[in-house]
Design brief:
The complex is a heterodimer of chains A (about 200) and B (about 290). Chain A is built from 9 helices and 5 strands; from the N terminus they run H-H-H-E-E-H-H-E-H-H-E-E-H-H. Chain A is of the alpha+beta class and about 200 residues long. Chain A has 2 domains: about 70 residues, Arc Repressor Mutant, subunit A; about 110 residues, Winged helix-like DNA-binding domain superfamily/Winged helix DNA-binding domain (Arc Repressor Mutant, subunit A), CATH 1.10.10. In chain A, the strands form 2 sheets. Chain A has a 3-stranded antiparallel beta sheet. In chain A, strands 1-2 form a two-stranded antiparallel sheet. Among the domains of chain B are: about 90 residues, no CATH class; about 100 residues, Structural maintenance of chromosome 1. Chain E (Arc Repressor Mutant, subunit A), CATH 1.10.10.580. Chain B has 9 helices and 5 strands; from the N terminus they run E-E-H-H-H-H-H-H-E-H-H-E-E-H. In chain B, a hairpin with a 6-residue loop joins strand 4 and strand 5. In chain B, helix 1 packs across helix 4, helix 2 runs antiparallel to helix 3 and helix 6 crosses helix 8. The chains are: A alpha+beta (about 200), B mainly alpha (about 290).
C-alpha cells in the first residue's frame, strides 16, 4: 500500500472535500507533505489517463468529482445526487454576507431594502452561513459569516475566489460593523429576543 | 395611496412611458427603483427625483393592503422618495458640507446594483459547480415489491404482449406544451356574471353544463382567486358540503374591465392567504371562510 493508494481510497469514499492534513490522519506512515505529493500525482494521473473524474480543489480541500462534460449523462439517474440550487433572494442575501462578513441581519436588510430574517434562516439551514459573533450595537446582534459548505457549493477554494470588488463596476462601502468573537454556543432562544430588541429601536 | 387598498397585488399597469412594471418580479424597492432608472437610461448621479417618485408611486399603487408585509418596504421607500423630493424643493443653506438629499439613496442604489452583479456571478459559479458530481447521500426511494402478487401467465401471453409493444424511442428529453383548454379568466367571468343577478350561487350550479373535470378545477381556482381579491365570499356550512359563492358588498365596478389582465399569472396565490380549505374548517356554524384581515 503506497501513500497514493491510501489517499485515493480516502478521497474516493468521501462525500465532502478533505484537506491534506485530514487525509494524513489515515495512517501513521503519512504526513501532510507526502499527502500533498500524492494528491498532485493523482491529479496528473487522472488527467493524463482521461478519467471521467478529476481531483478538484474545493473549500480548502480536495474532492474527487466527475468532469463537467458528463453532467448530462448523470442527470438521467435518480441514484446520482443532484446539487440543489438556491433561490434568487437567498443568493442575494448570501452575496451580501459573503462580501461583508461578519454582518448582522439589519445591515443585510438595509442593503437589500427588504426583510431578510427568513432568507437568512434558510441559508443557515442549508449550512451556507453561520453565526460567527456578536455585534456591539443594541442587543448585541448576531453576526453572520459564510461556511466551508458555502465554498463547496459554489466551487470556490477559498473566499479569495469570490469575484474581486475591484473587478466589479462599483466599489462596496467599507464595512462598519464591529465584531466581538463569541466562544460559547449560541442559545437558540436568544436570536428572537435580539431581533425584537433591535426592531424596537 | 388610497387606491392602493383597492387594487390587487402583482397588478400590471401601464406607465406614462409605456412600459410595464410587475411588482412581483422585484426583490424589493431598491430593485424596482434601479429598474426604473436603468430602463430609462437615467444618470444615477443626477436622478430626476420628481419623475422617479411619480413612477415609483404608480408602480406601488398596485400593492394590496393584505400584502402589508412586503408592501411596507415599498411604502417606506415611497416615503423616502417624497421626503427627498421635498428637500430638493426647499432652499438649502449653501454650505459645502451639506450633502445632496439624494446622496444616500444613490449610494444605496449603487451598492445594490453591485450586489446584483455579485449575485448573478454567484449564480453562474453555482451552475458550473453543479455540473461536477461527487458522491453523496441520495434518499432511498420506495421500490415496488415484486413478491406480493404471484405471476400467473403463459408464454403465449408473454409473446403476445411482447409483440404488441412498440420499442420506445431512445431517451429523448422532450418538453411538451399543451394548451390549457379551460381558462381561469373564463371561469372568473362566469362567476362574476352569475353574481350580477343573484346574491349567491352554488359551486355545483356553475359546473352543471360541463362534463370535463378541468372545468371544476378551474372554476374552483377562479373562486379562490376572486376570494383572495376580495371580490366574493366563499362559504360552506361544513366540510364536504356544498360550496356557495357570494358577491361581496361595495365592490368597485371599475375593476371589472381589468379582469383579463389581472388574472395572469394564475399561480400567484400565496400559501398564507386566507383562502378557504374546506378540509380544515374548524367550526361548521361559523362564517369561517371570510377573510380575517
Amino acid at each position: 500500500m503506497n501513500a497514493q493508494q491510501i489517499v485515493e481510497a480516502v478521497l474516493f469514499a468521501s462525500d465532502a472535500p478533505l484537506r491534506a492534513d485530514e487525509i494524513a490522519r489515515a495512517d501513521e506512515s503519512l504526513d501532510e507533505d507526502m499527502v500533498e505529493v500524492a494528491l498532485e500525482e493523482l491529479k496528473a494521473f487522472y488527467l493524463e489517463s482521461e478519467r471521467a473524474f478529476g481531483l478538484v480543489e474545493l473549500a480548502e480541500g480536495y474532492q474527487i468529482l466527475t468532469r463537467p462534460v458528463f453532467a448530462g449523462y448523470l442527470d438521467r439517474f435518480d441514484t446520482v445526487p443532484r446539487p440543489s440550487r438556491l433561490s434568487g433572494p437567498a443568493l442575494e442575501a448570501l452575496a451580501i454576507i459573503a462580501y461583508r462578513q461578519p454582518i448582522g441581519r439589519l445591515e443585510v436588510e438595509y442593503i437589500r431594502g427588504v426583510g431578510s430574517s427568513g432568507v437568512i434562516r434558510t441559508l443557515q439551514d442549508r449550512g451556507m452561513v453561520e453565526v460567527v459573533g456578536r455585534g456591539e450595537g443594541l442587543g448585541r446582534p448576531l453576526l453572520y459569516g459564510t461556511t466551508g459548505r458555502f465554498l463547496e457549493h459554489f466551487g470556490f477554494q477559498s473566499l479569495e475566489d469570490l469575484p474581486r470588488p475591484e473587478d466589479l463596476p462599483v466599489v462596496l462601502r467599507d464595512r462598519s460593523t464591529a465584531i466581538l468573537p463569541e466562544d460559547d454556543e449560541e442559545d437558540p432562544g436568544d436570536p428572537n429576543q435580539l431581533e425584537l430588541a433591535a426592531e424596537g429601536s | 395611496m388610497k387606491r392602493s387598498l383597492a387594487t390587487p397585488p402583482g397588478a400590471t399597469r401601464a406607465e406614462p412611458e409605456g412600459f410595464l412594471v410587475e411588482l412581483d418580479r422585484f426583490q424589493g424597492p431598491l430593485h424596482l427603483l434601479l429598474h426604473l432608472i436603468r430602463q430609462q437610461d437615467i444618470d444615477i448621479f443626477d436622478i430626476p427625483i420628481h419623475l422617479i417618485t411619480r413612477q415609483f408611486l404608480e408602480a406601488v399603487e398596485g400593492i394590496h393592503a393584505e400584502d402589508l408585509d412586503s408592501a411596507g418596504e415599498f411604502l417606506e421607500m415611497a416615503a423616502t422618495l417624497v421626503r427627498i423630493k421635498a428637500q430638493m424643493v426647499l432652499p438649502r443653506p449653501l454650505e459645502e458640507e451639506d450633502e445632496d438629499p439624494r446622496a444616500e439613496l444613490v449610494r444605496r442604489l449603487l451598492e445594490y446594483e453591485q450586489i446584483q452583479e455579485i449575485t448573478s456571478r454567484l449564480e453562474r459559479s453555482e451552475a458550473e459547480r453543479a455540473r461536477m458530481r461527487g458522491k453523496g447521500y441520495v434518499e432511498d426511494r420506495p421500490r415496488p415489491s415484486a413478491q406480493e402478487v404471484p405471476l400467473e401467465t403463459t408464454w403465449e401471453e408473454v409473446m403476445e404482449a411482447a409483440m404488441g409493444v412498440s420499442l420506445p424511442e431512445l431517451m429523448d428529453r422532450e418538453h411538451r406544451v399543451t394548451p390549457r383548454t379551460v381558462s381561469m379568466e373564463e371561469k372568473a367571468v362566469l362567476i362574476l356574471n352569475h353574481l350580477q343577478g343573484e346574491d349567491g350561487v352554488e359551486f355545483r350550479h356553475l359546473l352543471a353544463p360541463f362534463a370535463d373535470k378541468m372545468h371544476g378545477v378551474m372554476t374552483f381556482l377562479a373562486g379562490l382567486e376572486l376570494s383572495r381579491r376580495r371580490r366574493i365570499h366563499l362559504r360552506q356550512a361544513q366540510p364536504f358540503h356544498e360550496l356557495w359563492l357570494y358577491a361581496r358588498e361595495g365592490e368597485g365596478i371599475e375593476e371589472e374591465a381589468r379582469w383579463e389582465a389581472d388574472l395572469d399569472p394564475p399561480s400567484d396565490i400565496p400559501t398564507d392567504s386566507p383562502d378557504p380549505d374546506e378540509d380544515t374548517l374548524p367550526d361548521p356554524d361559523e362564517d369561517i371562510l371570510e377573510e380575517q384581515r
